[in-house]
Amino acid sequence: MRIMDYEEFRTHLKKASRKRNEPLIKIVAFQEKYMKIDEIQYYDVEQNYMSVQACNTLWMNLKDKSFRNLVSHDLKFFQTMDNLGRHSLENLIKELYDMAVPILLDYDPSDFYSLQQLSEILVLDEMKLIEQLEMGRFKGAFINEEGNWVKPKPDKAELFLL
After folding, report:
1. Is the pLDDT of residue 162 over 50?
2. Number of neighbouring beta carbons within 10 Å of residue 41
């Protein structure tokens, strides 16, 4: 078992976006501390990989400045954004990699709960559970390469949490 590195993440994000045409939040799970951000501080360029122009472009093109809104767009939205060049898009993907819940590769599925299993255990509607998962409320839960939510079982969770 290993964690998906940046290049694999970048390829996965682009491929999944092209194939499934879904928002980023449906492709990658993000850490709770980022999902709680109501207003992203794009202008604090010392804290990220993005240029001032790229930060300004995002600020001007996103009406709602929350992180959740940012990741509720598909990759094509950013690819077609005026004044956000290819290099800036790559830097945005680097930022997303740092904010994402690590995606595990070559893991044993028996060490994880599927969305359906978790829904049954918690007696919770799958759509409500997905909303909570998207907000990062379950430590270690991530979206695998097939696009399915998985969460480490309690007795295995300490092995997967960083």
Report:
1. no
2. 12
